[in-house]
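Sample intake sheet
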Amino acid sequence: MTFKPGILDEPLLEFGGNGREIDIRLGLMRHGPLEPERATRVRLGIIGTAETAEGFERFLERCKAGIDAKKSRQPNLFLPFPGLGNDNPFRCAFEIDPHARKHLPRADIARIAAIASTPRAIAEAVELFAVQAQAIAEAPAPPDVIICALPLDLIMRVVHETVIPDGAGDEDDDDDEGPSDNFRDLLKARTIHLKRPLQLVWPTTWDETAKIIRKLEKLSGRRVQDPATRAWNLFNALYYKAGYVPWRLPRDPSAFDTSYIGISFYRDASGQRLLTSTAQMFDERGQGLILRGGRARTDKQNRHPYLSREDAYDLLRRSLQAYAAHHFHQPARVVVYKTSRFEPEEADGFAQALAEEKVRLSDLVWVSERTPFRLLRDGAYPPLRGTFLEMEQSALLYSRGSVPYYRTYPGLYVPQPIMLRPHLRESTLAELSRETLALTKMNWNSTQFDGSQPITVRAARVVGRVLKHVSAGAAEAPEYRFYI
């Protein structure tokens, strides 16, 4: 077996005015978002107790003036937040709509906190917020995004350890499916029909007292981010959820029009049925469609999930039809990322759909995250992000690792590489590795650019965690911003 090691350059991102940078925060500060002319303001609704609503509004006011960077020997990792005034990186205002405020009585919070059954407490908390969200969404001129400002005692009662607030960013990617009774996922599923994205925020967003931080760090198992980083992640998530695009992958005029599709699997709320979720990126901007696939199968030996020939055909055909409806033509190339190996009958179904829609080029890529292989680097730091090892039929890729721009490895744990194992491919392994690394930078819930998974895989998983709580007869929301 031959081995070809290499290191990929950090992919560039495109911002306003065709500005190009590798770093998201620097790109927004220097060039503004991709389409600043579309957004003059982002209108926010808010649901919370008098205390949490006031706390969030106080943080919003603080952010208008800007927040100093955390003192660190890695200044590129901890940039200051420039504020929401003249130096606003998003080039628009963020305002709380006075007609979209819903205050929750403390008695309701105390009642839920006292419920002995955790599933029942979660269900009551979901209903409490969902009723208020519906009232906001159905009012005339509803806001762009609804803030759910959770009080500490409710979090301590209904939030599981695997759950972190929206827009908190990634210390390491959190993609475990987690418990079935997940407050965040249940709330988003319960309100998915409202077509108004929710943004969950915790008291650590605005309150930096040691008591709250210690409690919530212990609960979430995560470090509480510094205030400037919290502001960057929060407002970036709000901007994206409001329907605007902060950045994209630069478009190479010589490249083929490509549609990227991620396929993941999830169990329904009963735990009995294994279903399919997909996230499709129509283009480098992340414009696309969320689709729900059919029931998955598992092979008898290794329990790997896969689709039947008919369901694979139907899923890809619907994806291609959605692309054509959006662009008025089919893509020249399709890349399918899947979190388990491709079975022959599944690949045949994809091939039939591609042939019928006259798509000439395709890559079917199994993204394996449980590889036993590791690479070592001289010194105390992990391999560089972008390090890859090309083998005969697969490639090992460090999508997380030491980042020269940050002058450190910004993760908490020893990074694990991903293995790209194409079932069929038109592209070279180096080209697929380069493309996959670029897709890890399309996570609009964080402004730290070294995510571990391509957005196709990450989005399909996030969508699956919410869809498991959406009944089979209900329509899913078509856009990713409703799920994160």
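Comment: The radius of gyration is 22 Å. Residues 171-180 have pLDDT under 50 and may be disordered.
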